[in-house]
Specification:
Length: 339
């Protein structure tokens, strides 16, 4: 019997040491030391032993029971520790892992050009003036000497919100608003949005212009040309030429259109300049005396020049963007190139 008991303890030991779940451990507990356990069956056999052997076997049995109880308690600790480690592992954070990168925004090419233009003109003594996007006919047309029957007034070009309320088609409105409120001399630029009912590769229904106005005694066309020259060189580099072509605007006399030499082919003719070697940048001219007089400015004493440049055009030329619509589609792949 003693030998048998020894075997039981040995097999209990190997079984108990190899379980890893609490549930299985409890099963072994009832198998070896529970009510209907192997050890209990030994207990019942004590009666069949000779009287003198009983106490000694009883003692051996007790020792075996204590051993097995200890084994179970030890294994229970091990299993608990194992479970704890597993939880630790599953809940742990790797502090050495690199963080998730936040996408960093960048300035829109128009914003970049806008700020650069402001810097250039402010360094030459111009102030930045503002006017509303929603305008009346007076500031957008009448005060700018634009006749009632001018084609630009028609609905096909101008977005009317109401009878006399429209989205400004040009920043020249700010010329008028400034001359209404500002004492002379006036030297301002006015960058901002304009709106016209047009939409193709070089026209967008919402676009940006920068207006410049300089009114003082003795301002001449030469001053206009010099200022444009300084601006073009600062914006595009010393190599870039520009030209002034006669044109018509109702509020300037004489009027001109400003072209710069193609930034891609330098006058050779290419697809960007459609073979002409030149790129249109805006309009300019000497403020028409009619405009000055209507605002109470003595046109015998004062003269002024004005020009309006397309800022989207400038961005397109500077960054060689082939289609204006790219500027307003907000395609992240396009915008990323400017970060
Ligand atoms: N406002 C004119 C346009 O949008 C441009 C311009 C501005 C012309 C100032 C002359 C003087 O076409």
């Amino acid at each position: 019997m003693k030998e048998e008991l020894k075997k039981v303890v040995t097999s209990a030991k190997s079984e108990i040491n190899s379980v890893v779940s609490m549930h299985n451990l409890m099963q072994l507990k009832s198998k070896y030391i529970g009510k209907k356990s192997i050890l209990n069956s030994f207990m019942q056999k004590i009666g069949s032993l000779p009287k003198e052997e009983r106490p000694a076997f009883g003692q051996t049995l007790n020792i075996a029971k204590n051993q097995i109880e200890q084994m179970i308690a030890d294994q229970e600790e091990k299993i608990k520790e194992l479970d704890y480690n597993k939880t630790l592992q599953s809940e742990s954070i790797d502090l050495t892992m690199p963080g998730r990168k936040r996408a960093k925004g960048s300035l829109h090419p128009i914003t970049k050009v806008w700020r650069e233009i402001e810097d250039i003109f402010m360094s030459m003594g111009f102030e930045v003036a503002e006017g509303p996007d929603v305008e009346d006919e007076y500031h957008n047309f009448d005060a700018l000497n634009t006749p009632q029957d001018h084609p630009a007034r028609e609905l096909s070009d101008t977005f009317y919100l109401d009878n006399d309320v429209l989205l400004r088609t040009q920043t020249s409105t700010v010329q008028i608003r400034t001359m209404e409120n500002h004492s002379l001399p006036i030297k301002i630029i006015s960058p901002g949005s304009c709106y016209r009912n047009e939409n193709d590769a070089s026209h967008s229904p919402m676009f940006h212009q920068v207006e410049a106005l300089f009114v003082d005694e003795g301002v001449s066309f030469t001053d206009l040309r010099d200022m444009l020259n300084i601006f073009v060189k600062k914006m595009f580099g010393d190599k870039i030429e520009f030209r002034i072509r006669p044109h018509y605007f109702p509020f300037t006399e004489p009027s001109a259109e400003i072209d710069i030499i193609c930034v891609k082919c330098y006058g050779e003719g290419c697809n960007l300049c459609k073979g002409s070697g030149w790129l249109e940048m805006g309009g300019a001219g000497m403020v028409d005396p009619n405009v000055l007089e209507k605002l109470g400015i003595d046109s015998e004493k004062y003269t002024g020049y004005a020009f309006g440049l397309g800022m989207d055009r400038i961005a397109m030329l500077k960054y060689k963007i082939p289609d204006m619509r790219l500027l307003f589609e907000n395609d992240i792949r396009f915008l990323k190139q400017f970060s």
